[in-house]
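Quick one: structure for this chain?
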Amino acid sequence: MLYMHCVSSSQMIWWWIRRTLYLSLGRNLTRKRVVPITTVATVTAAAVIASKKFDSENSGQDKQSKEVMADNSTPSVCKYSKMWGFSNPFENWREPNLMTVVKWKTKYTNETNLPEDKKILDEKLPVLTPSFKPNAHNDVCVTWIGHATTLVQMDGVNILTDPVFSDTAGPSICGTVVGDKRYRPPACKVGDLPDIHAVVISHSHYDHLDSQSVHDLHERFKENIHWFVPKNLKSWFTGCGCRKENVHEMDWWEEKDMPGHPGVKLAFTPAQHWSARNIVFDKNKTLWGSWCVIGPKHRFHFAGDTGYCEAFKQIGEKYGPFDLAAIPIGAYLPRPIMEPQHVDPAQAVLIHQDVQAKKSVGIHWGTFALAYEYYLQPPQDLKKALEEKQISEEEFFVLKHGESRNVSTEDGQSKL
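Got it. Here's what it folds into:
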């Protein structure tokens, strides 16, 4: 959903005022009343002033946070305020504002070029029927279901990342889901999955957190599934019916043992992004991040949805090396708009190196048209970036929807 990827709190203020004005205009026009031009001008001026005030206050808050990041050895900390929510501490973070969206929509051309013919999509981006294996113990197996949804099997644990099985990523308005529609279906349904022991959620955007998918997973696995979620999201999950004791809400650098699986830990780690589900009231009120799964033999890193930042070197130093990393490679053009929140393939390769991944799989592409790059461009640009770094395509690979790959690793003790 395009608007969810470039909306700041200043924009929300403007949209709220615009909505108020729209409703007022509607009521007055229905009653054949005239709305004075001064009313329109006053409301517009209020929106601009509120936008500038937020950007000024938020930049000051960010400056203090970014000073903490001057030394890479200092763990990244995401500060929180009741007024503005969480804020990124990273030097290269820029909060999108109203002018960002205007510039995006007026200056740049959408070059996605999605084929209208389904046969072409079936040929270029085939969707395979997954053949899930029993719980993996001696290796790591990854299956790409679509977008940021993967099934990772390691050390006897089945982990699902950012599960989205719905056809549309967006809110439900009057019973109808509106937002970005998939141009490639999920490789399977919730009912086709093997036993799921844990779900990790990177953030609250609709293309990463889907209420229907959460409901279906809860209904199928009940008390056997555990939800690992960012700070301030627990109440959302319990509101969906998930058992309170099965929802584990975590802050950056916090660690928790996997219930029922001795020797397996999960750590919530930083990423450079933001959060929102309601464009008016909840911007950045819940945290975002990445995940590390540390087992007795293997380690997995889920980068989630992120811009490039120095935190990934910290993650590699603390928890690496990883047997497998799932790293986003799509939704990155135009760069002046997308760079703070979405890595491009070249930066994805940097994350691969920073976290010390032995193998990585490219995700967050080929499913939703969220940005302006050609729909097949992410793997093409990834190939070029790997060639420049002299890294093989076996080390950092892409999968077809529904395709699985075993990542062979040397057996060894994983230490925390």
